[in-house]
Amino acid sequence: MFEPVIKYTYMDIKLYQIVYKPEQIDREEEFTLYDNSHNNCDKLHNHREYPAFLEAYKTGACSTSDYTGMLSWKFGKKTGWSGKQLTDAINISGDQEVYFINCGPGVKDVWSHGERRHPGITSIVQEVFDRLNIKIDISKIHHDISKTCFCNYWVGTSLFWDKYIEFSEPVYSYLAYDASPQLKDRIYTKADRGITCGYIPFIMERMFTTLLCIDRSITYKSFSKIK
């Protein structure tokens, strides 16, 4: 019998791994260290990894390869994947705008989940959307579990990065710099029982899934984590 032929296209894939300490990086040639130590603190004002996304995008790091990922330093531990396995999987199918692995809960609605875990998050993000004239009612988004991805376990084309930053950056800027004193008091309230930070990281990690849900033109493929 003939073995099936697997189409394999060698893409230029750049995988950055965001770390706060040099020893956190997975020691694989597929990963390039991205030092985020200057954004790290154990305070309510900790914005975690989204500032690194903006820095990389604005310096052009997300547009020099076919696909670019700004991955968590916990990538291997959380997904069970190696960097080589990820690049191989993308090379085999390599025709989507974005690839991702959901390491969080398998929930359909990331905002109702957020409200359970971080009470008050939905009213904050809806207020920001309204202030920015973003015509999204988060209670009426058509959710799809195949589009669910928490945190930064995704790799996208420069086109996808353009769409993602265009959508998410105004929200981040408003939360970080333009919110009223009253809203800032809510934003920088401790948002999670187990983690010392306010609401910004938990809002920003849900922007990826929200974008996929509202923009049906985006092509994507979700990989399963390896147990």
Question: What does this entry look like structurally?
Answer:
This protein is of the alpha/beta class and 227 residues long. It has one domain. Helix content is 37%, strand content 13%. The chain contains nine helices and six strands. Strands 2-1-3-5-4-6 form a six-stranded mixed beta sheet, with helices on both faces. The longest helix is centred in the last third of the chain and has 21 residues. The protein is globular and about 50 Å long. The N terminus is likely disordered.
The strand count comes to 6
Proportion of residues in β-strands: 5-15%
Cα distance spanning the termini: 32 Å
**Cα Rg:** 18 Å
- Count helical runs: 9
Widest sheet: strand order?
Answer: 2-1-3-5-4-6
Brief summary of the model shown:
The protein has helices spanning 50-58, 75-79, 83-93, 110-117, 121-131, 158-178, 181-187, 200-204, 207-214, and strands at 13-19, 31-35, 67-72, 98-101, 154-156, 220-223. It is of the alpha/beta class and 227 residues long.
Itemize the secondary structure elements and their pairings:
Blueprint: E1 13-19, E2 31-35, H1 50-58, E3 67-72, H2 75-79, H3 83-93, E4 98-101, H4 110-117, H5 121-131, E5 154-156, H6 158-178, H7 181-187, H8 200-204, H9 207-214, E6 220-223
Parallel strand pairs: 1-2, 1-3, 4-6
Antiparallel strand pairs: 3-5, 4-5
Which structural traits does this protein have?
227 residues, 37% helix, six-stranded mixed beta sheet, 6 strands, disordered N terminus, alpha/beta
